[in-house]
Amino acid sequence: MKASSTRNVLKVALLSLVAVVGLSMTCSIGVAESATAKSGKGDAAKPAEKVIDPTDVNSVIYLDTSGKPAGVGDPNRPPSVAYRAGRGWHPAALSATNLPRDRYGLINWAQIVRDNLIKPRPSLDPTEEEMDPLDMDVLIEAKGDYVDNVIYPHKIHTYWLKCEVCHPQIFIPAQGQNNITMVGIVNGQWCGRCHSKIAFPLTDCKRCHSSPKKPPEAKK
Amino acid sequence: MRQSYALITCAIMAASVMFCGAAFAAHEPGPGKLVLDSKAASMSKAGVGPVVFPHDLHKQNLKCSECHPNIFKDQSKANDISMKKNMEGQFCGSPNCHNSPKAFPLYQCANCHTNVKGAK
User: Fold this and answer.
1) pLDDT value at position A32?
2) Bigger pLDDT: B55 or A200?
3) Domain range for residue B13?
4) How far is A198 from chain B (nearest CA, A)?
5) Residue B23: what pLDDT?
6) pLDDT at A59 over 80
7) A146 and B73 in contact (C-beta within 8 Å)?
8) Considering CB atoms only, which of B85, B88, B118 is closest to A184?
9) Domain count across chain A
């Protein structure tokens, strides 16, 4: 009885030894594998412990439209889920990025493109051909005598948009065929189809009414 | 002696309060509404009617000195107001007024002009 019990104890000890050795072996292999995986991904995958400082431009928090954090302002990181889903950047966060602005403090995207600060892709579809912008200014005479004329630049509009976005539904592509009114624009017709919605607002009159018109007194 | 000093200061204070009150009471309140139609011909081309400026409404929120005499001269017809000048930051379009988030923007034609064609 005594001898058999010691044998049993020995057996258990041996088995446990084997188990421990086996376990440690698999563990070490696993660690080695994860190590190679880490080195393979490169240094970019290192999770940087960033402290978010709202006054620091480089660590601006981007919030989605529901106010939840959508990522930090690091262009090297992949876009957040919210951004990929088409949600906008938080205007307050965007305004802290020192991008060029108009005289109302609104970000001047046209200027940003002209200065080559951003280079947006022509389309999400890589097979789609990019059309060259149409460099054609159209003079739109203001109806009143005391309002400057508008010089409409096709160039910046065709940089963003295809012809079919505006023609012929919004603007008939023929001179003098569109009776554009400021009231209509404010009510969402003509330019107001985009401006004050997704394009810069109508607030800065001078941004479009830029070509001086001599008042009738000065014409004498 | 001290008492007389106190009396004099009291008298001065009372006098100044009375003077201020009198000055306010005597102050010209200004017109309630001003019709601005000097450029009626141009306005009709643009499809809008004359502006009716609510002077009383502006007086509720602003001090006289915020507009007069730097932005608007006090005399009638002394200010050559035009949309062009408003857009350039003069008169109604001064940087702290209708060219700023403090007041409605200049493109809301029907807020100032009467008989605006197509206004909702």
Assistant:
1) 41
2) B55
3) 1-29
4) 17
5) 43
6) no
7) no
8) B118
9) 2
pLDDT digits (tens, 9 = 90+) for A102-147: 877 778 889 999 999 888 888 888 888 888 899 999 999 999 999 9
Contact A147 B87 (CB under 8 A): yes
Q: How far apart are CA A118 and CA A160, in angstroms?
A: 13
Residues B36 and B69 reside in one and the same domain: yes
Domain membership flag for residue A194: yes
Residues B11 and B54 in one domain: no
Structural domain harbouring A201: 121-219
Same domain, B91 and B80: yes
B59 with B110, same domain?
yes
In the predicted structure, residue A156 carries a pLDDT above the cut 50: yes
Same domain for B64 and B106, yes or no, is yes
* Residue A145 within a domain: yes
Amino acid in the structure at residue B29: P
Contacts of A146 in chain B (CB under 8 A): 39, 42, 82-85
What does residue A137 show for φ and ψ, rounded to 5 degrees? -90, 140
CA angle A132, A138, A141 (to 5 degrees): 165
CATH code (residue A145): 3.90.10.10
Q: Kindly determine whether residue B83 and residue A215, on different chains, have CB atoms separated by under 8 Å.
A: no
A146 to chain B, closest Cα gap in Å: 5
Average pLDDT over residues B50-79: 93
* Cβ-defined contact of A205 to B117 (cutoff 8 Å): no
Query: What CA–CA distances, in Å, run from B12 to B18, B19, B22, B24?
Result: 10, 10, 15, 18
Question: What pLDDT, in 10s, does the model give residues A157-188?
Answer: 999 999 999 999 999 999 889 999 999 999 99
- Residue whose entry in the numeric block shows the structure tokens 């009776």: A179
Most confidently modeled range among A65-69, A96-100, A148-152, B16-20: A148-152
Q: Which helix (H) or strand (E) holds A185?
A: helix A182-186
| Interface touch B82/A215, C-beta < 8 Å | yes
Q: What is the CA radius of gyration of chain B?
A: 21
Say if the Cβ atoms of B106 and A205 lie within 8 Å.
Answer: yes
Nearest CA of chain A to the CA of B118: how many Å?
6
- The total of structural domains in chain B comes to 2
Whether A166 maps to a domain, the answer reads: yes
Pair (B57, B110) in one structural domain: yes
Token pair for A104: 């109302």
CA distance B84 to chain A (A): 5
Taking one residue from A and the other from B, the number of pairs with CB-CB distance under 8 angstroms is 62
